[in-house]
């Protein structure tokens, strides 16, 4: 493969997977990330690695055995509760005692696993892309906020929901899904919050009803990450005159919105150890496609941002990274590689995004508990 200057924008799981596999085959790629360091911010909750996507990518990257040392198969447990706190569905897959199925791992642990597998200085921290100038023949000059610039024969946009690379290929922008999560969490849950830990179980507990709900997700180290979900206006807090930095006021507003819900479930609001973070959920229009352009392509959320109710986001990003790396390794030219990759990427992304849109609309609907119970009963 003739390309020798590959720039990956974004040090998420997809971009790092691509860089790792390329390095295994003697191809250098430089990853540019806007964060000041690998520890600059929390990486979020837990992920279940699917056999045909995340697990496939880990095996291709030679990291499967390392992954198993940190994976939590027991995290596959899934529960559904009603607004009264009564468990309606509880599934512990047969694989929960093995590495089969979809074992869980914290996002931060997965990212560290990928970062540690790369050669020193592969990732250039503190490099936020501001613009990319096309020079013809697929070459681009990349400009960063620190005043530096570099030239690349191939630019891979792995820079997430608000990608700075995407506009070079597509006019699409993420749209608000109508659902907002307010994130909170519980430290040392089994000791400090035993009833909430029991309700959560070893994996994920969802309590859904009438366009609202709770998602409690077991992470490693006894931590439970909680998402308080509402179908609401994106500026719901502004309409209420609510200051999101006022923890007591946010708590009061959430309790008011969830009037009539079980006291146990309301504990996920009141027992927070981490405060509250407002997270409106966005997705790219479906279908999202673009016209092939030499020297540039996308992967992960930059290509197919969708709601978390697909359960596929990080898995698809890693599969994207693995597929793009292998296309670059196996094809005679960079352009051939991008075309081959996008031929697989785009239809796969559309199918997953359609499923994600259906998933969030079912989970946050007037009869969400009934729809979700029917889905779980059918698929477990």
From TrEMBL:
It is found in: Cytoplasm. It is an enzyme of class 1 (oxidoreductase). GO terms for molecular function: monooxygenase activity. Its cofactor is FAD. Its EC number is 1.14.13.-. NADPH binds at residue 41. Belongs to the aromatic-ring hydroxylase family. TetX subfamily. This is Flavin-dependent monooxygenase. Pfam families: FAD_binding_3. Consists of an N-terminal FAD-binding domain with a Rossman fold and a C-terminal substrate-binding domain. The keyword NADP applies. FAD binds at residues 48, 107, 301. Coiled coil: none annotated. Residues 6-343 form the FAD-binding domain. Monomer.
